[in-house]
Specification:
This protein has helices at residues 63-66, 92-105, 118-129, 151-156, 161-167, 173-186, 190-203, 208-221, 257-265, 281-284, 286-299, 307-316, 329-343, and strands at residues 25-30, 33-40, 45-49, 71-75, 111-116, 134-140, 222-223, 226-227, 243-248, 270-274. With 347 residues, it is α/β, with parallel strands linked by helices. The strands form 2 sheets. It has an 8-stranded mixed β-sheet with strand order 1-2-4-3-5-6-9-10, sandwiched between helices. Helix 3 (118-129) links the parallel strand 5 and strand 6. Helix 2 (92-105) packs across helix 3 (118-129) and helix 5 packs across helix 8 (208-221). It is globular. Residues 307-347 are annotated as: Disordered. One of its GO terms (molecular function) is hydrolase activity.
Length: 347
Amino acid sequence: MVDVPRQRPRRIKRLRPVGDGELRLHHRVVHGYRRAYRMAGHGPVLVLIHGIGDSSATWAELIPDLARTHTVIAPDLLGHGASDKPRADYSVAAYANGVRDLLSTLDIEQATLVGHSLGGGVAMQFAYQFPERTERLILVSAGGVGREVNPVLRAVSLPGAHLMLSALRLPGMGVQARLFAHLMRILDTDLGQDAPELLTLVDALPDATSRSAFIRTLRAVVDWRGQVVTMLDRCYLTEGMPTMLIWGDRDSVVPVRHAYGAHEAMPGSRLEIFEGAGHFPFHTDPARFLSLVEEFTSTTGPADWSRENWSGLLRAGRPGSAAGQPDTAQNRAAERDMREASERSAT
């Protein structure tokens, strides 16, 4: 395993100012649905993909800095933010297709993808479906690399979730939820690190349409046992694609041990741990996050994809798979774990 760098890289010199007008929401109609996005800056393209229940607003304070050296595109995924919320396919694969289609309408062929939480799973799926369009991957507290997830999300995937979320909108419930969040912070729990952002996600579900889209999205990736999709069985395909993983060591939504597992499964990947941060490390320490993104994109070249190399990786298969391996108890156990992951693959 590659050593985890602990030193913070120096900030790269800022190049150009970004006006407030560039940060406003734009809209494109794709397949008959109105999709919102923010777009700013000039240069190599960065696509920022938010997590479940969130929106492009989560990146708002980072976009001006990133847009000094990049063209930054931050979409509101379908069912989120200011985008339409139809009764539609909210699977990870469908979201990857949606990102591809939005980029196509903007005449963008290739990009570095930065994905947070669910958005990390979407970014990985995009790289799997469209490797020729993916220059780099930056995965932030990403879903899709392990079964574990916060019990609250597992509960919301159960029948009756609509009533549960509706109850949070009743008079007085908001005050109680904030008091609970404050207590979690006083007790210095991991959940307390993420409570303010998680409460903001609840506030972003003001009506039945928003709540329905949220539940549909959640059930596409989570059930009562945990996460139901994974990319671990295909992470070896990122060989040759610059990949950086960023995680908070106190993440209460997706445990930090998922970061180490993904790092080991992705050849040549880089891992950065934000000590004391929860599920939103880019909110906890935005200066370090910006420095890492700027340094990573400026010191690595875009993935050199070719059909021949992709075919070769697929033929060779995942390192350590059963083919050609000794029939030991350890290998049989590892293979059982991977078969379980394969059952949850996002194809």
